[in-house]
Each structure stands twice: as C-alpha cells, then as structure tokens.
Amino acid sequence: MGDKDIKEEFNVEEASRRAYEALMDRLRSLLAGDRTVRDRPVLPSVAEIPSDHPRFEVVMGTNTNQVTFLFRRQDLYLEAYQRGGSETWYEFREKNQKEHAVKGSEFLPFSGSYSGTHGLEENAANRDRSGRVMQGSFDRSRIPLGRYALRDAVNTLATSDAQNERARSLIVIIEMISESLRFEQIEIYILTNWYTGAIPTTELVVLENN
C-alpha cells in the first residue's frame, strides 16, 4: 500500500496463548500515543497520526495460507484484506459509499458494521430455501473465538468467495484484533479460552456495540 509504517506478522497455526498476548502488546505499543490510562496505552488523536501513514497491517499465516489485514490507526477499524500472492484488496463497502478508501481495491458486498441489512451479522447468516435470513443463525453470540476460530477464519478468507463464509470470518478477525485491542475484557476472555474456543458473552457483545 505504501501508506503504513506498522506491520506485524502472526503464525496462527502454531500460536500459543502467550504469542497472541504478545501480538496484542506489540500492537498497542506501536499504535499508542503519549497518554496512558491505568498504565495502558491510549490511541493518539487523529491530528497526531501521520497523514501519510494512516493504517497498519497484520499479516496472518497458517500452514497453507496467508492473509494481510489492513486497519485504520485512528480507530482500529478493519478496512480491507488481501490474500497471499494477490495484489487485490477486498474493502468493506459502507452504506452509500461510492469511492474506494483503499487504492485499487474491490468492494465487498457488505459493510464492516455488525448490524443492519448491509452489515456483517445478517450477511453471515444462514438462509432458507427462499433466500430469507434465518434470524440469529450467525450473530456474534453464535460465533466462537479462539486459536482454531482464528486459523479457520484466515483459511476461509484466503480461499472462499462465499458471502456468508467471508462475513463470518471477518467477524472473527474484527473481534480478535480490533475489539481485543480496544477492550481489555475481550482480550482476557479470548486468552482464557484460547485453546478451547468460546462464544462471546452478552456483556462483551454489548461492550463491542458501544
């Protein structure tokens, strides 16, 4: 992209709980501004972020695949992903968005928001024979988080063009990177359930919505 100065790599396949925690710590340190709250780094203001480096990358690999994820520094928002060996970025398309934020990208058929008809949860849902959404079939309270969920998400995004599979996998990426960076409670929950996997609690989903 040429517009970021932070890039971290993470091998999901063999990752221990400690390795995931170290990744979160490194990212927080790299992204932090000059302020801390309760000894934890706080994101810099928009004015403090270099205009020519507004993003950061996390490259995730498994035994067979690699995917690069592009995040905004100002709010940790996931903007796009790129499959290993490809130059194409797949970018979320927000409601009424016409211009690409990521140069040379292709729009995904949904936004990066969780809710709404154009959002991730509805697009991740199973559908009946008539194509109608089966309510609650793949909202966040049904999608587990953990090491194997992260591995499967990377493999799916590297290989699948199915709309619902991509949306489900992107929910996992957002929760395990963006939300985990934003909220200590979410990181602790993921670390506690790293090897077994667990669906987010109602309290964590409410936290994410704030």
Describe, in short, the structure shown:
The protein is α/β, with parallel strands linked by helices.
What do these coordinates show?
- Belongs to the ribosome-inactivating protein family.
- It holds the Pfam family RIP.
- One of its GO terms (molecular function) is rRNA N-glycosylase activity.
- This protein is α/β, with parallel strands linked by helices and 210 residues long.
- The protein has a single domain (4-209), classed as Ricin (A subunit), domain 1 (3-Layer(aba) Sandwich).
- Helix content is 33%, strand content 18%.
- The protein has helices spanning 17-31, 120-124, 147-159, 163-182, 184-192, 202-209; strands at 4-11, 36-37, 40-41, 55-61, 66-72, 78-83, 89-91, 106-107.
- It has a six-stranded mixed sheet with strand order 1-4-5-6-7-8, covered by helices on one side. The protein has a two-stranded antiparallel ribbon with strand order 2-3.
- α3 packs across α4 (163-182).
- The radius of gyration is 17 Å and the shape is globular.
- The two termini are 30 Å apart.
- The relative contact order is 0.14.
- The mean pLDDT is 87.
